Amino acid sequence: MAALLPAEWIKNWEKGGKSEFVQLCRALSENKNHDVGFRDIQQALYELAYHVVRGNLKHDQASNVLGDVIEFREDMPSILADVFCILDIETSCLEEKNKRDHFTQLVLACLYLVSDTVLKERLDPETLESLGLIKQSQQFNQKSVKIKTKLFYKQQKFNLLREENEGYAKLIAELGQDLSGNITSDLILENIKSLIGCFNLDPNRVLDIILEVYECRPEYDDFFVPLIESYMYMCEPQTLCHILGFKFKFYQDPSGETPSSLYRVAAVLLQHNLIDLEDLYVHLLPGDNAITEEHKREIVEAKQIVRKLTMVVLSSEKTEEKEKEKEKEEEKTEKPPDNQKLGLLEALLKIGDWHHAQSIMDQMPPFYSTSHKPIAIALCRLVHVTIEPLYRRVGVPKGAKGSPISSLPNKRAPKQAESFEELRKEVFNMLCYLGPHLSHDPILFAKVVRLGKAFMKEFQSDGSKQEDKEKMETLFSCLLSITDQVLLPSLSLMDCNACMSEELWGMFKTFPYQYRYRLYGQWKNETYNSHPLLVKVKAQTIDRAKYIMKRLTKENVKPSGRQIGKLSHSNPTILFDYILSQIQKYDNLITPVVDSLKYLTSLNYDVLAYCIIEALANPEKERMKHDDTTISSWLQSLASFCGAVFRKYPIELAGLLQYVANQLKAGKSFDLLILKEVVQKMAGIEITEEMTMEQLEAMTGGEQLKAEGGYFGQIRNTKKSSQRLKDALLDHDLALPLCLLMAQQRNGVVFQEGGEKHLKLVGKLYDQCHDTLVQFGGFLASNLSTEDYIKRVPSIDVLCNEFHTPHDAAFFLSRPMYAHHISSKYDELKKAEKGNKQQHKVHKYITSCELVMAPVHEAVISLHLPKVWDDISPQFYATFWSLTMYDLAVPHSSYDREVNKLKVQMKAIDDNQEMPPNKKKKEKERCTALQDKLLEEEKKQLEHVQRVLQRLKLEKDNWLLAKSTKNETITKFLQLCIFPRCIFSAIDAVYCAHFVELVHQQKTPNFSTLLCYDRVFSDIIYTVASCTENEASRYGRFLCCMLETVTRWHSDRVIYEKECGNYPGFLTILRATGFDGGNKADQLDYENFRHVVHKWHYKLTKASVHCLETGEYTHIRNILIVLTKILPWYPKVLNLGQALERRVHKICQEEKEKRPDLYALAMGYSGQLKSRKPFMIPENEFHHKDPPARNAVPATVQNGPGGAGMPTSLTINTVRLEEGTTEETADKLKEKSQGVVKVINKTVNATPKVTTSNGNSTSNSKIIKEKDDKEKSGKEKDKEKKDKTPAATPEMKALGKDGKDKPKEERANKDEKAREIKEKTPKSDKEKEKVKKEEKASKEEKSKTVVTIIESKSTAEKEREKEPSRERDLAKEMKSKENAKGGEKVPVAGSLKSPVPRSETSESEREQKRRKVDTHSSPSHSSTVKDNLNELKDSSAKHYINHTTPTLSKSKEREVEKKDLDKSRERSREREKKDEKDRKDRKRDHSNSDREVPQDSTKRRKEENGTTGSSKHSKSESPSDSPRLNEKEKEKNKSKSSGKEKGDSIKAEKMEKSSSGSKKESRHDKEKAEKKEKRDSTGGKEEKKHHKSSDKHR
Predict the structure, then answer these.
(1) pLDDT band at 1270 (very low <50, low <70, confident <90, very high)
(2) What gap in Å lies between CA 1232 and CA 1331, rounded to an integer?
(3) What residues pair up with 872 in beta bridges, in sequence order?
(4) Cα–Cα distance between 988 and 696 in angstroms, integer?
(5) Per-residue confidence (pLDDT) for residue 1422, from 0 to 100
(6) pLDDT in tens, 741-760
(7) Can you tell me whether residue 1177 is helix, strand or coil?
(8) Cα separations (Å) of 1573 from 394, 1215, 1327?
(9) Of 1472 and 444, which is predicted with more confidence?
(10) What pLDDT, on a 0 to 100 scale, did the predictor assign at position 1336?
(11) Among 181-185, 327-331, 1024-1028, the least confident range
(12) pLDDT tens digits for 138-160?
């Protein structure tokens, strides 16, 4: 603080300092601010005195000026005495004696200004002694101690006899008189004073009596409080507190009970601050420690009760014990000790002293005080009063009268709330102290909730300022806290109050679901542990829930449902948590539980949704079963429950849908199961692979037909639930995100989730993801309005390029949009111009299509490489992907079926006598309305389909551009259109098959139907192996529909001629686009088509057997699924059927113990296959086999499994080249074969070729062959070296490739091969020259002919399919003969050479022409398949003997067959004799196999035996026969019958077959020699040409 006395004043004291000082003091004295003036005067005087002490000023000068100043204020002497007191203390501490002397001189000089008594009071005794004011300081000290003792420590002994009772009587009369008049407390106080004086009364007792009277007259607060207040001025402040404490103490013995009046008096005195709470609190019992202990004990007891409830009680003794315990507990709880602190708290709350009440509550454990009902009720009452004005303004519902609550008379009570802000300041605080005990006052509960509702209304209405918004945000968070800490716990303690639950929902539904779920989570997982009462309630709820769930069945749903409802009103989280845990264990509870939930409140349904999500997200639960191949049953049960419960009750879906979306974002697709179930149940859209063909057909119709005939369950009344689902998706913008996430996740399943998981599970998840996408997309398409849909789904290029949606899924999502667009445009155009002619309508439709699809055509270009659009146009691509089955065909039979059902229903209604007439009428009306709807829908679809077909007719010419080759076009078509879509859904599978047929029927340019079908059937191994389970099922459907079409054409010449006869799809010669060879181009005739169909059946068998034999789970499962689907149309041929049957039987045996699911599939298929057996036909009935001998020659190789339908020139030359190669010496052959491989490579490079998903490419086959060669065992390699057989020859490759052949057989085959080669050596030089010429020519030819995949068929393939079967048969026959003779073993020495001579006979022009006709294209898939199907003798032999002559009439056929039979018998007898001679030769041949060349005739005979044998056993042997010779030996040993006997015993049909085969073979053999000579002369240029092309192919 700055000095008030400047140093100049002291220096010039006499001149001006003195007067300055006096002026300063006067100014300070006049200062109106009393406190400031006092302090400043003190400082001024102190500074003056201090200057004297330091010697700067003389004491007489100071005393003079102080004499002048002393008059300015009354208390100036006292101020001066204070200053001396401070200086006294300071100077007594100083060492400088002179300063002390200066101080005493100053005081002495000023004695006339300050009285002695004041100085004696304030100065030290020693100082007083030095000043001479007292004689001895010691005596003075003693005297003061005595006085103090007398004053403070000696009690006055009031003589009771001296206190006259009359005084007290008068006092009571004075206080007890009627106070309603003009009597004031001041008046009474004067009377009391006079009574005390007159009757010598003890003031403390008087105060006690005043308090007693006040207790008895509580209504006179306004009188007694001022009286006590004024009386207290005469007493010590503590006296009142001590007297109250003494009163409380009096009631503290165990039997005492403190009266409420005392609490009230104490409370009022506290409120008026006449006593301090801290002072009074210490007088009250029990102590705080005791209260804390009691609280802890309550918690422990609650936990024990819980433990007892969850314990399993077994014996009756225990129940008795329990009863005893209960009695003890009751005794305990009967008399709780009197808690004075709580009594005071209650009184404070009643009078509205919230401030002091809060202080008491803070000193106790949380919610301890309010757990006592009186206190909770008192606090509730206080809250009622505080919220009254605000509640009356905003909270009262319309039409409610309400009972207003009057405010407290007390002015010191909390201010009543007029606004939400005031509500927050006081009321929310009070509610927090109440906590769960708001349950004591349901009315207050409802009021608070209504205020919350009113606030949310205001909060959600816009248009408030920024500051207000911030305030509102704070208020909102406070409201959430109150809900969490007070409202929900209170609801738990209320006794099943459904109205409160509904009231609360009124507020809750205004919260976003995220907040609601957060609140439920806190409620369920934290609140119940916060309070002993809630702990008990939780245990009781679980106990009750167990009781109900144990007794819940379908029969007692209603009563159990009511009990569940009752329990759920208060504690839904606990109850549902238990119910869901039961559902996860026992899925048979789902239906009764769903039905029993009908008595729930809206809040409970919402809580149920939360509980379901929490159960789904439970991190401790495994989503897979222990075997890691299937989704856990708990998840399946929950999903099923979800679907049922969300459909039946109005529960908000947003949370669940968001959960699924979040899981997908996190790359987890397990939970799609839930979405699938919800959509299925709520929208009635079912996704199942088990649909019948009738259902599938119905699914291609309109919405009404789908609903009636397309689904398993008749799903009715889904309108409301599907609307709810749609609204949830749109309101939360989840429709498109879910679609995109599913589409992306479908591929993600394999990479993100597939890592460690079992392949079966990954497949399941992929299927689930895909199925849900299809189902969900279907739901959106049928439920979203056009605007909603178009607004949400972006264009196709954005979907694919930006969102990375797979193309099939992107088109699936966009398809409904195109349909909507086109129909709306069409309607616009119709309205604009009203012309009813059909042509006008079609024209408008086509215009609207062009308008809508033009941007799509532009958009799809970006989806694929530019090269793609060389072959197929974007228009074709978009058209294929944008149409559906609804656009292509009308399911008339389905419509008829449903209409007939309705007619039958109506008839049944008519016949029903019991039905009341009005119900009859209603039912009939319903049926009639439905029938009309269906017929109307059919008509509408028919018109639509006609319009679409017109549109396609116009578009078709621009569809396929085929800038490269037709083959390439088919590749692109299959790769980009058919294969992705046929496995998308069952209807898409049917659509793909129909579309192919449609493209064919429309005579689309550049589309080869034959090629397309051939590609589809030729090698299904790769496609089948890469499918998931459901995809396999769809692929099977696709194949089934394709086979259906083919079978229809195959069944009848008339149909074939009509539907395929002169269609461009059946052209057999394919030319480069620019090359005009239309005149020579020729159609495939009916008979050849039948051969081709047989070839396709054979290929299917080959692929099926391969898959079944891999031992791979996926291969076996998928092929069995596919086979089951195509059962109506395949197998049709008996021997192929038998082959399959054997393999499937083997699977049944192998998998019975190992993989039960495969076993079940195989057994199922096996049973169905057996039932189809009667409908299978022998091969010769399936395609024509027995034409006259002369015509047999030309068509040799054409219809083999690989060669069918090649242009003749190519076919024959392939065979010739093959023969040529066989004739060359071993070393040269090696070089030769390498050359051939090079040629193949060139050819492959020259022709642009895309390997389709079927994997049919020549280069592929080559790689596989090389690989297989490496795999050969060392033995075989050595053997090959010895024999000098070129490993590269296709024949040997074919053999080596068959990994299942035994070395023994291979060795024998190689010996024969070597012998054959040596036979032919003389011709080798000529052949070499020919080959060289052909190579040159082939280069020239390349530019002219487009090499299709068919043309690149290698001879190796043919060998593989023809030769081994024949060798093996020969080997088998030889063995059987050895066995018959006594088991002497003769090595096999049959010919490995292909039956060349057949192709070598001279050809007439007609035959050449026919060959061209017969040819048709076939890819070389099977060349890439490592398989042991080579021994399919029938089919191979038959394929080679197929012919093109017109079919003979049946009678002629029979005659021919009889003759054949006789001839064959004679021949077989002759052969027996020859064979005996031959055997000796053969022994010798075998020993000299490396050197000796057998005679031509012997060789021919052996070959003849081989071929006849092969046809003889054709029935029993087929692809299923194992190539292991040892097995065959065993079989032969069992039979031990000679070849002749066996031949005779075979049925006539078999003999017919064999005779036709043997006849032909022998005929060929006889003619062989002649033809060889002719060949050299007539071959000429043509021969060279043939060689070229065959080279090229190889």
Answers:
(1) very low
(2) 9
(3) 960
(4) 10
(5) 37
(6) 998 888 888 887 666 777 88
(7) strand
(8) 117, 17, 14
(9) 444
(10) 46
(11) 327-331
(12) 888 898 899 888 888 876 665 55
Q: 673 and 635 in contact (C-beta within 8 Å)?
A: yes
For CA atoms 1521, 1522, 1525, 1528, give the dihedral sign.
negative
Q: Tell me which residue of 1227, 1231, 1374, 1399 sits closest to 1314, measured CA to CA.
A: 1227
CA 260 to chain centre: 64
Nearest-10 Cα torsion for 486, 492, 495, 496: 110
Q: Which amino acid is at 105?
A: Q
pLDDT at 1558 over 90: no
Is 404 exposed, middle or buried, given 0-12, 13-18 or 19+ CB atoms closer than 10 A? exposed
The pTM for the full model equals 0.65
Q: What is the CA radius of gyration of the chain?
A: 55
**Contacting residues for 608 by C-beta, under 8 A, at least 6 apart:** 572, 576, 597, 600, 645, 651
State how far the Cα of 659 lies from the Cα of 517, in Å rounded to an integer. 12
Sign of CA dihedral 489, 495, 501, 503: negative
Q: How far apart are the first and last CA of the chain?
A: 118
- Phi, psi at residue 1442, to the nearest 5°? -70, 150
Find the angle CA(1435)-CA(1441)-CA(1445) to the nearest 5 degrees.
Answer: 125
For residue 631, the cross-strand partners are 624
At position 1214, the amino acid (one-letter code) is T
- Spatial separation of the C-alpha atoms in residues 1530 and 1519, rounded to whole Å: 19
Region class of 1399: left (phi > 0), else alpha (psi between -120 and 50), else beta:
alpha
pLDDT digits (tens, 9 = 90+) for 1135-1173: 899 999 999 998 898 888 888 888 999 999 999 999 988
Q: How far is CA 1037 from the centre of its chain?
A: 28
Pairwise CA distance, residues 29 & 685, whole Å: 99
| pLDDT-derived band at 464, boundaries 50, 70, 90 | low
Q: Which of 665, 663, 683 is nearest to 673 (CA)?
A: 663
pLDDT at residue 1591 tops 80: no
Q: Which residue has the tokens 């092929």?
A: 1119
Neighbours of 111 (CB within 10 A): 14
Q: pLDDT tens digits for 484-523? A: 999 999 999 998 789 999 999 999 999 999 999 999 999 9
Helix (H) or strand (E) holding 574: helix 572-585
CA gap 843, 849 in Å, rounded: 10
Q: Which residue has the tokens 């409610």?
A: 400
For residue range 1082-1137, what is the model confidence (pLDDT) as tens digits? Answer: 678 888 888 999 999 999 999 999 999 988 889 999 999 999 999 988 888 988 99
Summarize the chain as % helix, strand, coil (round to 5): 75, 0, 25
Preceding peptide of 592 cis, ω within 30°: no
Q: What tokens were used for 1019?
A: 């090698």
State the DSSP string of 1458-1490.
Answer: HHHHHHHHHHHHHHHHHHHHHHHHHHHHHHTTT
Mean pLDDT to the nearest integer, 1420-1424: 37
8 A C-beta contact, residue 795 and residue 760:
no
Residue pLDDT, tens place only, 912-958: 878 888 888 888 888 888 888 889 988 988 988 888 888 888 888 88
Closest CA to 355 of 274, 473, 241, 270: 270
Residue-wise DSSP of 7-49: HHHHHTIIIIIHHHHHHHHHHHHH-S-HHHHHHHHHHHHHHHH
Q: Residue 183's pLDDT is what? A: 87
Bridge partners, residue 1133, by sequence: 1177
Any idea what the Cα angle at residue 1416 is, between residues 1415 and 1422, rounded to 5°? 115
> Long-range contacts: 471-480, Cβ < 8 Å, 24+?
471/421, 474/424, 475/420, 475/421, 475/424, 478/424, 478/428, 479/452, 479/455, 480/511, 480/515, 480/519
Question: Chain centroid to CA 1256: how far?
Answer: 38
Q: How far is CA 1485 from CA 1187, 1303, 1371, 1389, 1471, in A?
A: 37, 20, 15, 8, 19
1177 forms beta bridges with 1133
